[in-house]
Write a structure and sequence with these properties.
Layout lengths: L21 E3 L22 E3 H24 L2 E2 L2 E5 L13 H23 L8 E6 L5 H14 L3 E7 L2 H6 L10 E5 L8 E8 L2 E2 L2 H17 L13 E2 L2 H17 L14 E4 L7 H7 L28 H13 L4 E5 L6 E4 L5 E2 L2 H14 L4 E5 L4 H9 L3 E5 L3 H13 L4 E5 L5 E3 L5 E2 L1 H17 L18 E9 L3 H20 L6 E3 L26 E8 L3 E10 L5 E8 L4 H17 L5 E2 L1 H9 L3
Parallel strand pairs: 1-2, 5-6, 5-7, 6-10, 11-12, 15-16, 15-17
Antiparallel strand pairs: 3-4, 4-8, 7-8, 8-9, 12-13, 13-14, 17-18, 18-19, 20-24, 20-25, 21-22, 22-23, 23-24
Helix pairs in contact: 1-5, 2-3, 2-5, 6-7, 6-12, 14-15
Length: about 625
């Protein structure tokens, strides 16, 4: 460490080093002594203890591992896994990569093997048999290879169903001769083409959120610790199977047997024209493999060709374009029924012969009318966003209405638990179109829902009615106003969930403290089963996957006129705000109160994008 004559004196020989730092390797505590002529104030010396450096390196490595693990954990989406599989979304990076998918698939295979071992009390004699289906998304082939590799690592025997539906994947565990031990479906439902995801099934049904969390935790450890992030070759190639033909035959047989047509048993849909809008998803099979073979005329059907870019509209029965196009096709062709499927066919909506859309509360009412004919006095479970008019519709027909937590898995599981507790519940439906029936293994199957509607339509015609299925809900009252708004959380994605919880809990506090005049926490609306939408009254309450609360709203002159429901989205970093009112301008007045007396007063408007709230507060429109 040489210095010029004008610079500081050179360090003593014992301290000279060619390194930028001085490392004293053995001692943790030490003293440096300088000659009296040496000015330490003019000489800069960096001393680093090797044990401290090692600790810092270890800390950095641990932080990196934690981040790698969190990357996998954040892919959990309630009882599913979802993420960005392709570039193209502003502000979102690709996180559902082949390495991540492989780790998750391997962990699922191991989990299934462990569950089978628990059930039998001994290790399985043969390899666990797992099937995989997928929707037509363009990221499907590459991610499917990763699933096959992961399941192979876990020692599973793998079966490739190709293009399939979510309900078919579950049914592949039950229908002979397939009867797989487990199944996976690769889909992101109605989300953009850039997204993809995974759903998991055993013979008992879809996995719960805690079970998927366990699998993702296991996968996170594998992903973080694996040097080679993804396998380059499959140990054993998957066996291709044509399950969709067997599944379609299963649906055809149900229609034939239950209609039991007196003139043409094998073609009970002869004389009916039915329009299918598959939205370029997986639902086209229902046209040619179910309806056509039962004698229906399906001329005029829309978007049957699978296309993972979804060029015509979002495959979603809640999508206005999808519904509008189906309504037009029904009217132009004078059809008896229109059907709209989502991408993976676990949801559906319909259009009656007069072109009226039937989704949301209307679809729940239609299915309730059908089910209550078969099972009087049964309980209908829905999410807590349904209207008070729907409750009256159900109770007027002798049924009981249980409002529960938003989320299709929550609603279905509530029905399962009620039946276990001795309360008969034959139908569970969410306003999104997810619906399950006790008679169909509590499976949310959009195709099966449509099968039930078609059977009722044919029966009505055989009984001499020409009104069509829309007549079953002609006395359902519509809420005067119904609005859904979104507030995006302006923070890093990994902190968004915690922020949402904080905001929604504070909303509850404001209501309970009376800071929103006329607002009162509403745990269950008119639910007859204990505390309904927020609290399970049994001894084994379900795990909470997303925080949500509902408040009923009153005004001095008008009395109780509506409700507001705040919930944390499990799909995206935002908070959904649902409102319904029975008076003109009721939703707007509630929105103004939410903004001024809660969001601004609490300061949360600084970390939320409340542009939709502002717009509705100003003009009552979105």
């Amino acid at each position: 460490m040489a210095a010029s004559s004008s610079s500081a004196p050179t360090a003593p020989q014992s301290l000279r080093t060619n390194s930028p730092s001085l490392f004293l390797k053995k001692s943790k505590s030490f003293q440096l002594r300088f000659p009296s002529s040496f000015s330490s104030s003019r000489f800069q010396l960096r001393v680093e203890c090797s044990s401290t450096a090692a600790a810092e390196r270890h800390s950095d490595e641990a932080a990196a591992v934690d981040e790698e693990m969190d990357r996998i954990r954040r892919l959990q989406n309630g009882s599913d896994v979802r993420g960005v599989a392709l570039e193209g979304e502003k502000g979102r990076m690709v996180d559902l990569t082949p390495p991540a998918v492989e780790a998750i698939a391997e962990s699922f295979g191991e989990w299934v093997a462990g569950e089978l071992e628990k059930e039998s009390g001994a290790a399985a004699a043969a390899a666990v048999r797992v099937s995989l289906g997928r929707d037509p998304r363009i990221s499907g082939p590459a991610l499917s290879a990763a699933v096959f590799a992961g399941l192979g690592r876990a020692g599973c025997e793998v079966f490739d169903m190709g293009l399939a539906t979510t309900p078919a994947c579950f049914m592949s565990t039950l229908l002979p001769p397939f009867m797989f031990d487990a199944s996976m479906m690769m889909t992101a439902s109605h989300l953009p083409y850039t997204r993809n995801g995974l759903k998991f099934f055993t013979k008992k049904g879809g996995l719960t959120s805690p079970q998927v969390e366990e699998i993702c935790n296991r996968a996170a450890r594998k992903y973080a610790n694996r040097l080679a992030k993804v396998s380059t070759a499959l140990r054993v190639p998957p066996m291709k199977v044509d399950f969709m033909s067997a599944y379609a035959e299963h649906l055809r047989n149900i229609i034939k047997q239950r209609v039991n047509h007196p003139l043409h048993y094998d073609t009970p849909l002869q004389g009916f024209q039915i329009i299918v809008n598959a939205g370029n998803g997986s639902g086209g099979f229902f046209t040619w493999d179910v309806l056509d073979k039962l004698g229906a005329d399906t001329f005029g059907s829309l978007h049957l060709n699978p296309d993972g870019m979804f060029p015509n509209h979002i495959p979603n029965p809640e999508d206005k374009i999808a519904m509008s196009m189906t309504q037009s096709a029904v009217l132009q062709n004078n059809a008896d029924l229109g059907i709209v499927f989502d991408t993976d066919v676990d949801r559906s909506g319909v259009v009656d012969k007069h072109g009226n859309p039937i989704n949301g509360d209307r679809l729940i009412a239609l299915m309730s009318a059908v089910v209550l004919k078969e099972h009087p006095d049964t309980t209908i479970v829905t999410d807590a966003r349904t209207s008070t008019a729907l409750t009256r519709f159900i109770t007027d027909r002798g049924g009981r209405h249980c409002l529960y937590r938003v989320g299709y898995r929550n609603v279905i599981d509530k029905g399962v638990h009620l039946n276990e507790d001795g309360i008969e519940a034959h139908l569970m439906m969410e306003t999104s179109g997810h619906g399950a029936l006790k008679e169909n293994h509590f499976l949310d199957d959009g195709a099966y829902m449509v099968v039930k509607i078609i059977i009722e339509m044919v029966r009505m015609k055989l009984e001499g009615s020409e009104e069509g299925i829309g007549s079953l809900i002609k006395d359902l009252e519509e809420p005067l106003e119904s609005v859904e708004l979104r507030m995006n959380i302006q923070s890093e994605l990994r902190f968004a969930k915690a922020k949402a919880v904080e905001i929604i809990e504070e909303f509850k506090n404001y209501v309970e403290q009376g800071r929103l005049e006329g607002w009162e926490m509403d745990s269950c609306g008119d639910c007859w089963v204990s505390e309904g939408c927020l609290v399970d009254s049994n001894d084994t309450p379900a795990a909470i996957d997303a925080l949500m609360y509902r408040a009923k709203v009153s005004e001095a002159e008008k009395g109780e006129h509506g409700w507001m429901h705040l919930r944390q989205s499990i799909h995206n970093p935002n908070i959904a705000v649902n409102l319904q009112s029975t008076i003109p301008g009721g939703c707007q007045s509630m929105t103004i109160a939410l903004r001024d007396k809660f969001l601004v007063a609490s300061g949360f408007d600084k970390i939320l994008d409340i542009s939709e709230i502002d717009k509705h507060a100003r003009n009552g429109r979105l």
